[in-house]
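Q: I'm writing up a methods section and want to include an example of the input and output format. Could you take the sequence below and give the corresponding predicted structure tokens, formatted cleanly so I can copy it straight into the document?
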Amino acid sequence: MTDTLEFELEGDYVELNQLLKLAGLCDSGGAGKQLVAAGLVRVDGEVEWRKTCKIREGQRVELDGTTIHVVAAPVG
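A: Here is the clean output for your methods example:
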């Protein structure tokens, strides 16, 4: 079973480890770094090893059956 979340990006980017925390997939940025270091996180279908890589609008992040679609926050 896969879940899909939509994350509204405020600004140009969010660091991968912080995105995992903000989306509720881990308890802290440190826990997010551990998930990335273990090779469990994919960005746009590829395993991502950079813990603080910049995730921008339009990208997809996958972890343990959950996909996060990063979209721009509404203006206004």
